[in-house]
Q: What sequence folds into this?
């Protein structure tokens, strides 16, 4: 049985994690996992973390950039000791707060779980992760009925229909791509699925 905080936490999206403390007054530096850091880590914004199995809201009281990363102060955190308790924590927001994206762009979490089929309706598998950087992303697909994974470039010429609302991606791969990009799945894989 999944408890209420766990089910709420699982329905949220990751926007960053606390990298380390900064200074002696309770500030922390954030590793960004969002395309909208100025929105997510603004003063009076709220992000969430878990502590001891409980969901905890963190109200941001101050925010600035340092070396390209947000440095934030959260309500109730006024010392380095209090800030150290936040280090390593993942920060999330409710999925309903996600920013609308332009056509042709997708949130990675929306692609995970999508069924992948070829244009002739052959089942390839299910997306288990999206890897790479903007402009060079690839879908990691758990092959249907095997322990293999297939890397598929997330390019318009290959992924001809991307429909996260229907949990479907239709691909038109060049000859040999699926065989070439097939590999044995990693049993030590720790991706969230």
A:
């Amino acid at each position: 049985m999944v408890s209420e905080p766990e089910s709420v936490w699982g329905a949220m999206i990751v926007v960053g994690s606390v990298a380390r403390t900064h200074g002696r007054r309770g500030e922390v530096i954030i590793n960004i996992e969002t395309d909208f850091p100025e929105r997510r880590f603004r003063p009076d914004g709220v992000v969430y973390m878990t502590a001891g199995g409980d969901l905890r809201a963190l109200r941001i009281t101050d925010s600035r950039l340092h070396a390209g990363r947000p440095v934030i102060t959260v309500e109730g955190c006024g010392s380095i000791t209090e800030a150290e308790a936040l280090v390593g924590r993942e920060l999330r927001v409710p999925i309903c707060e996600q920013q609308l994206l332009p056509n042709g762009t997708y949130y990675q979490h929306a692609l995970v779980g999508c069924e992948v089929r070829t244009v002739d309706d052959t089942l390839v598998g299910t997306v288990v992760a999206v890897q790479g950087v903007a402009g060079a992303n690839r879908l990691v697909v758990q092959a249907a009925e095997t322990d293999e994974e297939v890397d598929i470039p997330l390019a318009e010429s290959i992924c001809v229909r991307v429909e996260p609302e229907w949990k479907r991606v239709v691909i038109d791969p060049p000859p040999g791509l699926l065989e070439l990009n097939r590999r044995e799945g990693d049993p030590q894989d720790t991706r969230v699925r």
In short: Residues 120 and 172 are 9 Å apart (CA to CA). DSSP finds five helices and 13 strands in the chain. The first strand starts at residue 12 and ends at 22.
